[in-house]
Each structure stands twice: as structure tokens, then as C-alpha cells.
Amino acid sequence: MSTLVFLEHHGNELSKAGLGVLAKAATLGDSNVSTSIIGSGVRSLAAEAGKFGAAKVYVAEDAQLEAPLSQPRVDVLAQLVREKDIDTILFANSVLAADVAAGLAARLDAGVNWDLTDLVEQDGKLVGKRPALQDSVYVDVGWTTEPRIALFRSGSFDPSATGGSAEVEDAPVQLEDFSTAARMVDQAHEESEGPSIEDAQVIVAGGRGLGGPENFTLVEELAKALGGAVGATRAVVDAGWYPYSTQVGQTGKTVAPKLYIACGISGAIQHKVGMQSSGVIIAINKDPNAPIFEFSDLGVVGDVHSVVPKLTELVKQRKSS
Amino acid sequence: MKIAVCVKQVPEGNSRIDPGTKRLDRSGEGALNQFDANAVEEALKLKAATGEGEVVLVSMGPAKAQDALRKALAMGADRAVLVSDEGAAGADLVATSYTLAKALERESADLILFGQQAGDSDGAVLWAAVADRLRLPVVSQAAEVTHADGKVTVKRQTEFGYDVIEAPLPAVVAVSDAINEPRYPSLKGIMGAKSKPQETLSLADLGVEADRAGEQGSRTEVYALNEPPARGDSRKIEDDGNAAQAVLDFLAEKRLL
Amino acid sequence: MKPSDFPPPFDARDYVAAPSDPEDERIEVGVLIVGAGPAGLACAIRLGQLLEDAPELRERLGEVPVAVIDKGKQPGSHLLSGAVVNPRALRRLFKGRKRIDEMPFYGPVHRESVYFLTQGSAFPIPTPPTMKNEGNFVASLSQLGRWLAEQAEEAGAMILPETAAEKLLVADGRVRGIRTGDKGRGRDGQPLGNFEPGADVVGRVTVLAEGTQGHLTGAALERFGLGGDSPQVWALGVKEVWKVARPLDRVIHTMGWPLRPEAKYREFGGSFIYPMGDDMVTLGMVVGLDYRDVELSVHDVLQELKTHKLVRRLLEGGERVQWGAKTIPEGGFLALPKRLHAPGLLICGDGAGLVNVPALKGIHYAIESGSLAAEAAFASLQRGQTPGTPGALSGYDEALKESFIWKDLYEVRNMRPAFGRGFFVGGALAGLATATKGRFPPRDLHLERDADAELFRTDRARSYPAPDGKLTFDKLSSVFASGNRTRDDQPNHIVVQREVPKELADLWVRMCPAQVYEAGDGDGNVTVEITPSNCVQCGAITAKGGRLTPPEGGSGPEYTLT
Questions:
Q1: C interface mutation test: which of B9, B15, B179, B191 has the most C CBs within 10 A?
Q2: Residue in C474, C485, C489 nearest the CB of A244
Q3: Confidence (pTM)
Q4: Beta bridge partners of A150
Q5: B2-212 has which fold?
Q6: In chain A, which residue's Cα lies nearest the Cα of B17?
Q7: Cys staple from B140: which of A266, B174, C526, C543, with CB 3.0 to 4.6 Å?
Q8: Quick one: A156 and A209 in the same domain?
Q9: Residue A146 falls within a domain, yes or no?
Q10: What ipTM did this prediction achieve?
Q11: Which whole-number Å values give the CA distances from C14 to C18, C166, C188, in the listed order?
Q12: pLDDT tens digits, A285-317
């Protein structure tokens, strides 16, 4: 087996999600795991990759690779895969990675399975595990040919700081005309107001149990302390306490952050279907019979007005120490 | 300007997977994939802005996918092309992108639009694969598209904010659901949809080889369906003044801090 | 205190208007049918058949000779019934074209049982003669509707779902058509980015087949003075469809528990449990809306019913797959309008109140009335008459009076009012009425408006089971199971007074199966909060002091198996 992990970077940092996939790749019993770092002025990141378990890093350096555009990356990877006989290419999902993975699949006529939460060897085959139909069922998927492309749900795995060093090799950069036709005019900078609800890894949501719109500050403070986004239920949006863009649920947004903290939310099914795939669900509600306690990992029967501010304080303390 | 919009029919309401074929049960009533409605709306807006042109719908699916196409025609699209063939069933991204690319080649559109994702397969990044086959530039997650002087300028939504990207036409653009609010078809539009041209093509019509389409042309497979992993034990505590600490400890335990 | 003390701020005249779009922008069709239910679709199918042999008339009717509009997402989305269907009208409609075995039925009724329930037992009682179902078929009305819609399209009709009929267009004393509702308005009625105004749809004949609590039917009855002497009364039916582990071998009806037999409660109704093939069962609770206890909740009574050992056994190992609610007009013959036609207008089906309560049948009357309406419209058009001429459509009423619909309804006309006297007295009166084929009682009994029932409060709610999510369910998760995913920022389509005594507000809270209403706390008047996006458009509020108007087309439930 010969695996290549696509690593993404932003500014001067490698994305954690990609490093997580690298850690996963190392467990697959393949001794031949390499990574790619593609951009401009990125050579120094190779050492970082090494610390997180990369034995070999292919660095593709070119001014034309500076902007995070997908198609030049497809060119680089396709060539690398062909020349180095790579049979498995792994990606952590992101806006960029998804486009690269799919473009690469077309270029190589290689099967791609996406939204995977795990990858294992079963009966001599590589099997991906992915949720489907709003996480109500899990599907085992596989590939019929090589090379194989897998796109993992972001944050599926944690990076593992093994503290090694990587062998660096320059990857050839031969770009197609059509790949360089699109041009980045203005690149995005880090969002200063916190993540959007769609991308947030942490969401703190408020419902009617908050008592009034003025109490949404409790939710906002906790979200800020955790570096997350604020969500709301249909009931409070209807009542005008918070904007519709933050509504989570059947007629609002569907989210799946790693952590969802529900404050004063009863957990009616209309809300549940919008957040049930969250990694960890914590609920705080003073009604012990609230349906949300049936699908939360940790339920606190208590008053949000006292529990939430205390929690915010503790989080801030923990983070500053 | 000719704009092709790739649309898909998806099962209405609650989807289920057929345990026999392990594929999505498409036997129920179908509807236009809601995200494709955004793409159709954007195409109509762009056509209106240039004052001329054509919006053609391109789709792959069973014969009754015509119904979903009719909805998009009712919104104002001019024409629809449906690739309908037994041999195209069970296609994965590789096979679908190949077939779709052939259908799009036939149209030679200036701009090809896709919707964000298909509600049924949650994340099929078809546009990038199709663009690669057509050797065209692709921009995804478009929250705003403007067209002038033979190119499109796209405001793209990423995890870090908005990029602004320019691409010369012909190009492929995938729009996000934030880009617009799709119009309600007027009653006149609905009634007129029936008489708009709707073409059905077979794989042979497109010159798509049997071994590159459908299940035969796919490179992935589904092995089994399983119950989702259990959520694990859920804990419930009462606040006696220490609940906040308990939550913090829980977060630490789960390595969420 | 009674609900009618607080009438809704509603005026039917607001929903009758002259066409306002410029003439060349009006949408013209030949015959316009409002409602893609069994009545409307039967009308469309019959018209298609008649027009097959009348190509000249067909030409004259223009590009769209027959159009059927429906406010649901697709035909069937708002159709709900038990149902056991008498195939008589379908046989007549499809004579020589389709056989019964080609229709989407779940099989003929083989066996049936009627039980009188107490909390702990089930006493089999002989099936009342009016309820015998031999020769009838179990069906899902929603599915049947979808099938009928396909037949109607094949017969040449254009079906336009997601379209609400908001106003009746009347000019020069005759019905010209309808105006469709606007789309894309926000909470406060303001036009949103994708606002699409309604349109005038005009036709030579307008057929109202709106079903129970028909919005334009109500407006038309007032506008043309068609109402009879007796008010209409309704029952609320709440039902579920279940996947079951073991097949049910018979059609079951129950009376008695959990409803209370004493006259003062006025709880007239019972339950039905029907097999849908080998792996599904549908069951529902039907209760007259003239009940008086503020705490009565038909949805919760249904949940309670499921805890009875007879029912629990049937559902063991199964899973609920759908839920829904709808009202049924129960006034029967006595509540029929004086006339069911007006210049340019015909009224069919449940909207007209063509339901046989003791037999629990209305679908075949709807279909037959639709066929008769088609024939009357066709005859009038064929004669070259303007159907808008007064009397041009009187053939419809004549045909109705000659039909089996009239005969059946007349015979059972006093059954329902009898039950105002409580189950036992009512049962006796009803029994006598049946035995004498309607000749007893000698003077027709009296119907009282549902909203005129004096209210009181008991502790009825104490026995409602706490929802366990497996056998019993709360209202919100039930709304979800109706397929309802209406957008939240729609304008409110429910017309009620918002500041009312707590007793009335609580009545509405319990009455509504979809948890649309919420009542504040207080001693005097309280504020009624409304969540219109939960509404499954059952119509109960119209019977009990408010008024349901059609929301944006495409909203509401998306029934498929009800």
C-alpha cells in the first residue's frame, strides 16, 4: 500500500484536520505514508509535518500555487500519484480539499468516497465508514480499483505529535492551461467575529428556557469563551429574540459540530433533526423530563441562568492557565 | 450567453436506502433538489442581466426526473435535456461526471452552474469532477456571481471568509445556498413549462461507452448498511451548585477544551 | 361561556371580489376545479371522458380545457381519511376503462368487528347495519388521490399543486373564477425578496371541491345565499399509520372508552382500526366538535386509546410512520346547503357536506358528486349556454337529488343529531332511525353550532398518557410525522381573537392536534400565541370560534399514507 495525505495550510500553519488524517493513515499498517504540501513559500512547513508523523513530504513550490485554488493542486497530485505509484490518497474535508479530491477523481478515473468518519481494513479490503440520511444509518463503502481517494469529515481524527522528522522531496509542478485560468483577486482573511454557524466546531444554542432575549448574552459569552458560534431554536427566532440565520433545526440549519451545548432547549424533534449528528451534546434545562435529555451525552437539570455563567468563567480560567 | 444548469431530482420527504440494492430508494415522488433551485435562479438572473441568452437544464436520472425538470422550466429555464438510460443507474462520481461531461460538451455552454450539494447524497462534489473532464476552470461555494467582458467574478465562501476569484468563460461555477432566494414559479410559468422543449437522451446518443457509465463505470461500491454507532452512555446530573464544574470536567475528559 | 361569544375578526366578503388583473394577464381555462381530492379529480376525469367525444367543445375551451388547483405540495399531500371506500362511484366513473384491481386499494374488507370499550375490556357488539362494509375496500385517501391525479392528467386535465385559492372572483352576479394566493410574504405580510403575487384564474365554470371547511365554499354560500336552515357541524379525526409486526385480519371500529357517554360531555365519536395490507395498520379517533370539556384533546385521546390492551397488542413490535388530522362535516342531510350551484359555480364533496356519518362514508359521494358536476357543466357548455346564466347549472342539483347520495343521506339524516343526547339515548334513537329507514323520528332533530356549546373544565387531562416516543407521542413530534416542514416566517393564516378568557384559550390549546396555540397565564383574559407553521390545516378552529384561511400554497402537511 502506498498512501499520500493531502495537507492544507493557512498562513503559516498546517491545518489540524489534515494532520489528524495523517495520524489515521499511520495506523493503516502501511509503511509507505507520504504527505503533500502545495503552495508558495511552504517548505518550512515540511518540518511541522514531520513532527506529526510524516515520514516523507512532497513539497510543490510555485508562485502559481500560492492562492488556495483547487485545479493546480489536482495537476500536482495527479502527476505525483502516477510517478510514485501511489494507490491511496486521503483528504480532510474543507472547501478546497473537496474540490481537489473530486477533480483528482475525474483526472485519474479513481473512485472517491467522501464524508467518511473512519477507514479500516476488513477482509483484505479497505473499507470506509460513513453516515448517511442525516446520520440515521451508517454505510460501509469501498473502492473497486486503485488509486483510491478518501475524503474524511473534518475533525474525524486527532493529530498525533510523534516528534519525528520528514524526508523532503520536491514535487514537479507542471500545470495545465485550464488549471491556471481562474485567478485569485482577493483572498479571504481570518474571520474576526468567530466562526459561522455552518463551520463552527462548537455551537452554544439557546431556547425558550432562557426566559427572554436579554439572556442570550449568557449564550454569547459561553460561545465566545469556547471559540464557537451561537445557535437558536425556532421558538426564540419566531419570538424575535435572535436572527433566523442562527436557527438550527428542520426549517433552519443542520449542523454537526464537535460540541453542541443546548441551553434552555426542550429538544423537540424539529430541533433535534438539525443537530443530532453533533459529536458531543450537552443539555442544560430545568425540566427533568425535557426530551433533549434522551439524546444528550451529558444532561444537566438546572437553571441556565446560574449554570451557564459559572461554566463560562471556568472555561475562561482553564483556557488562560 | 448560454448557461447550462445541472439539476437533479431527489426523493421528496424522508429518504430511505433500499436494503436490497443498498442505494437510495428513488421510487417515491421526486422533487427538484432544493440546492439546484439556487443554481437555476442564478442562471435566470444572469440571463436577465445580459438581456439575452438561453438557460438549459441538464440532468441525469430515470424518466420521471422530467417532473423535477418541469419545476425548473416553470421558474423560467428555456429548455431541458435529460439523460435517461438503464445503463446509467447506480453511477458514482466517476461515472456520473463522465456522462454529464459528455452531455455538457454537446451544449457548449458559456457558463455551467451547479447547486451546492444534493440533499440525498450530502456532499457529492460533482462540479469539480465535471470541470476537470471538460478542462474548464471551476469556482465553488459562490455566494455572489457577476458577469462582464467574457469572465465571471465570484465571491466564494470559505472557512476563512470570502475570496474573490475571476475566471474567463467558459467556466464552471457551483453556487452556495446563500447566493439567492429562488423565485416561486408563477402560475403562468407552471402552465407554460409543459410546452417548453424537453429532450431525452440515451447513453448511446451521447457516445458514452457502457463500461464508463452506471455501475459498470463506477469505481466505488457499497458493502453494507449498519446501525449508527450508539451514542454511548448518557449522563444526567442535577445542579447542586457544582454542575458547571462537572461540565468542565466532562469537556476536558472528551478533549474538547 | 361559549366560543361563539368571541367570534373571529373574519368577514367572508373579503374573499369575494371582481377580477383585478388586466384582461390579457388573466389566466384562462375552460373548467376550473378547486381541490385535487376525490371530488375534484373525479370531476376532472369525467370531463376528460366527455370531452374525448366532443372535440369542438374541447377546442372552444382553449389551451387548458380542465385545470385542477390544489393548495398542497402535490395531490394527496392534504388528503386524509380512514378509509374504507365504497367502490360504487369509482366503478361508474371508470366503467370500461379501469378495473377495481387496478386501483390502489389495500384489499377488500373480509371481516369486521365493532367493540364497545371500557378501560379494561372490549365487548364485541353486532355491527350496526349502516356500518356494514361488505364489498368495500380499504384505502389510503392520499394514495388514492395521487392515483386519481394521474388518471386526471391522462384524461387531459392540468393539475396545479402548491396553489392556494384565496378569493372567489365574482362579476355581474356570476362566478368568474378564483384568485390565487400570494407567495413570498413575510411574518408581517411584507413582500420578501422572492415575492410572487397571486393571479386571477378565470374559467367558464368553477367547481369548488375544497373538502372540509372549504374556504371559498364558505364565502360562496354566504355570497349567493345558499346556506340551509341548519348549521354545519364537524368532527375532528386524528389518525396514525403504523408498520406492524403481525397482519390485522379485519376492519375494526370501537365506541365507548376513552370517550365519556354522559350527555353533558357531548363526546360523540369512536375509533377505527384498518389493515393496510399485511404490514401496515391505520388507526384514528374521531370526536364531534360539539364537545364541551375544555380539556378534551382528540390527539391525546388517540394516544390513550393505544394503551388499551386490544390496541396495544395490535401495535406491539411496530413503528409509527405517519400522523395526521382533519375535520369531517357531520351535519349530513340536515346541514346541506339549499342549493349547490350558483351562476358559474358548482359545489361538490365534503365541502358541500356530503358525508354519511353512521356509515362513516364520504369518499364515494365525493366522487359521484364530482362526476355529476362534470356532467352538468359539460351539458351546459355543450348547449352553448353560458354557465354563468342563472339556472344554467341547475341540472347539477337535479341530478344530485336523483342520485344515491341523496337517498342515503336522507335515510340517516337524524342519526348524528340524536347523539347530542349522549351515547345511550343517542344509540337508541339512532337504532330506531335505522330500523325505520329514516322514517323515525317524525320531526327532524335539531343541529346546534359547535361553537355554541357551553364550555366547562374537568380534570380529563390527568388520564392522557405521557408520551413515551414508542407507543404514544406528543403533538410536536406528530406534526413532524405529518411531513410538515412549512417555512417559519409565513404570515399567520389563522384568524382568531388574540385576547380571550383563559378558558377559551385553553380550549384551543387542547383542541388543536398540532400545537398551534399557546395560552399565557392569568385570571381574566390571556394572550393567545400562534405558531402558524405547525398548522396541518385540519379546520378544527373554524368549528370552535376561529377561522382557518389557506396559507401559502405548498405549506402544511405532506401526507402520503393517510
A1: B191
A2: C489
A3: 0.90
A4: A90, A113
A5: Rossmann fold (3.40.50)
A6: A133
A7: B174
A8: no
A9: yes
A10: 0.90
A11: 11, 10, 19
A12: 999 989 999 899 999 999 999 999 999 999 999
